[in-house]
Amino acid sequence: MQQIKGFSKLSKEEKITWLTKNHFSNSQKAKETLQLYWNKDEKLQKLHDEFTENTVSNYYLPFGVAPNFLINNELYTIPMAIEESSVVAAASNAAKFWLDKGGFKAEVLSTQKVGQVHFNFAAETKKLETFFHHVKPQLIQEVKAITKNMEKRGGGITSIELRNKTAEIENYYQLHCTFETLDAMGANFINTCLEQIAKTFTHEANLYANFSEEEQPEVIMSILSNYVPECLVKAEVSCPVEQLSPNVADAKKFAHKFVEAVKIAKIEPYRAVTHNKGIMNGIDAVVLATGNDFRAIEACAHAYASKSGSYSSLTDASIENGIFRFWMEIPLALGTVGGLTSLHPLVRLALEMLQKPSAKDLMKIVAVAGLAQNFAALRSLTTTGIQQGHMKMHLMNILNQFEANETERQQVVEHFKSNTVTHSAVVEIIKSLRNEN
Ligand code: MEV
């Protein structure tokens, strides 16, 4: 393999030529595969090329929809971008299940975002506290040019606090800032504010007569936090236990096993991780379809799942006075303006499909998608088992892998209506059908 200098400066064509010549036995075929996914519309392709760096092709994910979601008495069709089979089907099933039982209820509990200036100060804390008190109005004043527009709409910086972290790291302090960013996810806004705050803080410390040269604070970094435990949404479903199944005994058994399954995920991290992964199947798919940052959402959700000190289920379930309740509180920092939201045509379409939601509305929809996904997973796990549904969907992937024709597809699907789907069983039947012909 050859090292290359100045790769980013090459044209797209040149990048592809270098890449395919140096990494593939059949460079022409590799080039054709990359080109297969280019958009014919040059303007649209250029838009995608420019989302990130060194773009050589597009990576498609299926864009599916899950209809019939009743959320706070409004019906939604939820867009989902995900490659895993069964996820959209499971979401649709859960939506249908709750449709005639009052649907989902969702409520935003808080919308606070966080950012921090991390710095060292090697003198008396008291001195720093006095300086902070003196400089705080100026920190807010000098960031006004950035916060002005956000403030007009009701947002902005909501607090700046000095936090002493010297018990954990010698000389380490923070300016812990909170923000209201309304319909924007707010990462750029928060980071710009923080960098200005750090600049003013350093500048004013330089002018401050009570600090000697050695006592100047040293800013280490300024960055938003993706942990937003005060940007919280709650989603919930409930119904009388008997409504969970046409047969009362089955309904009671189902409710009992479901609640036990959640209890297990509450105390057992090995199970909790898989349990929460299932929740994130629903959440990430909607987050991606609506152009939001799924890495930030993932990182935050898992940190929140560990808030007690041990990793635990994000969902809760109970049976009280004959009522089955299933709910989740989850922090979600989402935006419906800025970022990709107006740039990416499919993201725009996804947001229009959701009736152009505010960030708060989107928090509710995404939380519901996560709760629905977990409901569907636990319902399968505690009744038929997960593989029945999974393998039925996976059957299609195996058929595609073998480039099965329409007749083969029909015969194979018919066969597996009454037989257990396994990878080897599917391969065997395709082979035997082909041998017969
Ligand atoms: C698979 O992607 C997700 C599940 O494993 C989640 C769960 O076990 O709860 C089905």
Keywords for this structure?
single chain; 437 residues; Alpha-Beta Plaits; 4-stranded antiparallel sheet; globular; binds (R)-mevalonate; HMG_CoA_Rdtase; 3-hydroxy-3-methylglutaryl coenzyme A reductase; hydroxymethylglutaryl-CoA reductase (NADH) activity; oxidoreductase; HMG_CoA_Rdtase_bac-typ
The total domain count is 4
Helix/strand-derived class?
A: alpha+beta
Number of strands: 10
Report the bound ligands by name, code or SMILES. Answer: (R)-mevalonate
Query: If you consult CATH, what is the topology of the largest domain?
Result: 3-hydroxy-3-methylglutaryl-coenzyme A Reductase, Chain A, domain 2
Helical segment tally?
Answer: 15
Instruction: Please give the radius of gyration in angstroms.
Output: 27 Å
Q: Low-confidence spans: pLDDT under 50, at least 5 residues?
A: none
Strand order of the largest sheet: 3-8-10-9
CATH architecture of the largest domain: Alpha-Beta Complex
Q: SSE order, as H and E?
A: HHHEEHEEHHEEHEEHHHEEHHHHH
What's the CATH class of the largest domain, please? Alpha Beta
The share of residues in extended strands comes to 15-25%
Ordered list of secondary-structure elements with their pairings:
Elements: H1 12-23, H2 27-36, H3 42-49, E1 63-71, E2 74-81, H4 87-99, E3 105-108, E4 113-120, H5 125-141, H6 144-152, E5 156-164, E6 172-180, H7 187-207, E7 218-225, E8 232-240, H8 248-267, H9 269-289, H10 294-305, E9 315-320, E10 323-331, H11 345-353, H12 359-382, H13 387-401, H14 406-415, H15 423-436
Antiparallel strand pairs: 1-2, 3-8, 4-6, 4-7, 5-6, 8-10, 9-10
GO molecular function, one term: hydroxymethylglutaryl-CoA reductase (NADH) activity
Protein name: 3-hydroxy-3-methylglutaryl coenzyme A reductase
Keywords: NAD, Oxidoreductase
